Amino acid sequence: MRLFNTLTRKVEEFKPQRSWEVKIYCCGPTVYDFAHIGHSRTYINNDVLIRSLKWLGYRVKSVMNITDVGHLTSDSDTGEDKMEKKAKAEKKDIVEIAKFYTDDFWEMCRQLNIGRPDLITPATKYIQEMIKLIKVLEQKGLVYKTSDGVYFDTSKVKNYGELGRVDIEGLRAGWRVDKGEKKNPTDFALWKFSPKTEKRQMEWQSPWGIGFPGWHIECSAMSLKHLGPTLDIHCGGVDHIQVHHTNEICQSEAATGKKFANYWFHSNHLTVNGEKMSKSLKNFIRVKDLIAKGYDPLTLRYLFLTSHYRTKMNFTYQALEAAKEAYGKLQSMVWSCREDRARTNLSAEKLAKVQELGQRFKAAVEEDLAMPQAIAIVWETMKSNAPSEDKWELIRDWDQVLGLNLGQARKPALPEEIKNLMSLRQKLRQEKRWEEADKIREEIEKQGYQVQDKRI
User: Fold this and answer.
1) Do 109 and 44 share a structural domain?
2) 447 phi and psi, to 5 degrees?
3) 171 inside domain
4) Cβ partners under 8 Å of residue 393, min gap 6
5) Average model confidence (pLDDT) across the chain
6) Run of H or E residues at 31
7) For the domain that residue 388 is a member of, what is the CATH number?
8) 331 and 440 share a domain?
């Protein structure tokens, strides 16, 4: 299998540390608000990666965090904790806020057929592991204390910012006069002190003072505990490359002296009608909103599979409508194959064709998860003259990767267009206008439907 590695900016042969096992860490949601379809694209891509690895025979151990503390409103370690801010706005307990939005996230995943990781790690359950990790960094002389927290001194490590190609000198040149107590523009908080003027809902005692962990230290502490010093693959969105993932690498490798992750798997942005998704633009779309409009949530999954995970994707309802039609047609064709799957003896030519289709689908999966090509092969298979039984077996096998629940396809309702063509063809046959009826039959079959005639 070959995967694009963000660290090297190359598609590389994937070689796990153990030939049969893959250790994966995925950045999970900060549960202060509803998950939207931009988030869902990232988690669908992560899911396809994990499904593909399992399908190819690897044993996968996956961990995903839930950020329920420490994620500030600014990447520069300033602003309010998003969880605390939400709790104040809704006048609720943070535990209640976290549970509500965590449940919403998992419901979205269920609707999109996204599998759960082997281990889910809420940040608040690992505070002592985070304090222990900060102590290790402190003992190595890599941290310093300010009036508002404990910071990592990035000037003391080599290759800081390699993942995100961070222009450190450029940042330093543009650093504002009011830089505060930070020694370098890229330094980041490991532990933040609670404000003296107010009591936070979530704060803990530490060797440095009462406070809460920085966002970046959370992922490092949890992944190190459950997956060891070196991950095979770290997953996330491209928006985390420059800061969050860069800082994870910095602190983890400084603490262990070992490479943090061998491969970095990043999903690209999703826009809506060409614009960034935001509540202010009123284009914040949840999967629940699509269901309310009558869309099967797996239609969205199908749509996302038609675009490579590394490309930017623009969501429009026009594209979703096209995906709805295509996914519905595909379900219909799969259902037909399932109903008509009497085993026949394959000719050498057909056997070779079936084997070739299987090999090409596998090759698409192995070439950096080329899902658009994989979907194209699915359609080629369904439109081929291969026996229904063989089509059914291929689709059931491939759906372990696609996750479209094609094995559960039910008898579909025929579209009005197809119903009208069927009625017209029946009338032509009754009038014995066989040539015209055959042309209608060809048109119906081009649309992906099989026609079975009865004697007139």
Assistant:
1) yes
2) -80, 0
3) yes
4) none
5) 92
6) none
7) 1.20.120
8) no
Direct distance between the N- and C-terminal alpha carbons of the chain, in angstroms, rounded to an integer: 55
Tokens read off for 66: 């839930």
What SS3 class is residue 36?
coil
Q: pLDDT tens digit string along 131-162?
A: 999 999 999 999 999 999 999 999 999 999 99
What are the pLDDT digits (tens) for 340-353? 766 666 677 778 88
Mean pLDDT (whole number) for 409-428? 82
Asked if 193 and 210 sit in the same domain, the reply is: yes
What whole-number distance in Å separates Cα of residue 407 and Cα of residue 54? 18
Closest by Cα among 16, 10, 106, 117 to 62 = 117
Band of residue 448 on the pLDDT scale cut at 50, 70, 90: low
Structural domain that includes position 245? 16-267
Question: Could you report the per-residue pLDDT of 78-93, keeping only the tens digit for each?
Answer: 888 899 999 989 999 9
Classify residue 50: in a domain, yes or no. yes
Instruction: Give the list of residues 6+ apart from residue 8 with CB closer than 8 angstroms, or none.
Output: none
Rounded distance, CA 100 to CA 87, Å? 12
DSSP-assigned beta bridge partners for residue 92: none
The CATH number for 112's domain is: 3.40.50.620
96 occurs within a structural domain: yes
Q: What is the CA 409 to chain-centroid distance, rounded?
A: 24
pLDDT at res. 455: 60
Token pair in block for residue 300: 């969205």
Together in a domain, 110 and 72: yes
Overall number of domains in the chain: 3
Give residue 445's pLDDT band: very low, low, confident or very high (50, 70, 90). Answer: confident
DSSP secondary-structure letter at 160? T
Q: What is the token pair recorded at 19?
A: 């030939």
Position 412 scores a pLDDT of: 63
CA-wise closest residue to 125 among 21, 11, 221: 221
Q: Which residues contact 126 (CB under 8 A, 6 or more apart)?
A: 218, 221, 222, 225
- Does 348 lie in the same domain as 214? no
pLDDT of residue 408: 86
**What are the percentages of helix, strand and coil residues in the chain, rounded to 5?**
50, 15, 35
Within this chain, do residues 327 and 226 fall inside the same structural domain, yes or no?
no
For residue 455, tell me if it sits in a domain: no
- Cβ atoms 397, 355 nearer than 8 A: no
133: nearest Cα among 63, 223, 24, 262: 223
Length of the chain (residues): 456
pLDDT of residue 49: 98
381 and 442 share a domain? no
Pair 427, 372 in one domain: no
